[in-house]
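User: Here's a chain of 313 residues. Predict its fold as tokens.
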Amino acid sequence: MNFTLRQLTYFRALCEQRNFGRAAEACHVSQPALSVQIRALEDAMGGPLVERRARDVVMTPLGRQVLGQAETVLRAAEQLARMAKEQSTGRRSLALGVIPTLAPYLLPGILAQLRATDLQLSVQVREATTEGLLTGLQIGELDVAILALPSGGHGLIEKELFVDRFLLAGSANRLAQINADGAAIRPQDLRSEQLMLLQDGHCLTDQALEVCGMQRNAPEINMGAGSLGTLSRLVAAGFGLTLMPEVALQVECSATKGLRVQRFPGPEPFRRIGLVRRDTTEAGDWFDQLAEVVRAVGQEIVAQTREGEVQEG
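Assistant: Prediction complete.
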């Protein structure tokens, strides 16, 4: 069986574009040249990979199978090409994953420090849920990930970096109502119909439910927001209350008019933020050095948040 990376690349483009002309344009070749390579791939695979229509194409069952394997082969080839380029230029790379409830707040500081201390380091960032990051680690698409611990993954090395406390967030009216009787509000005092949380898949939702002592199937919990930014704007507009991570507080309060927060009485609920890598990854100083950068950035954000609260008080 003879096929080439070029044929697999053209076939992937054809599946993405669903049109020979658009696929040829995306690959910067003529349409006849692309068609010849697709035909050659079909001959090698022993059957048609697409159904040809007037304006588009549809993958055959064989085509779907071939595409899945082609994507695996092409990812591996791209990684090999990147490794060869880095080896020849002396440039190193790091594939870093971050959960969405940390990425907007930590990444600017982390990337700035990495750039300042190591100009030869090329960082590729991927933002995804914990499940997506763990999958990326296991299959080698990521070298390391920043997420909440414990990760729940297997075959991993975890290093705790800092504690991210939760605050109660909502509109001024909502908070005034819940504080009306003068008692200190604990997470367990919140009712399910008062809560707004991120949609399923975000570990922050699981953590919030846990500290509030609620089950996922509790009635009337609104779990529809896709990001902390959206969630902040909804609760600021009076549509419920939420638990806001301390690390996100400065950014979201600055960006969201009417958002108010208050701390829970001690012991404050929190999540543990850490750095995770495969236990089979070659050990080296890079992991500890990256951990120190992430720890410093996270702790500085938390310290600035608390300092700002003191000044405002």
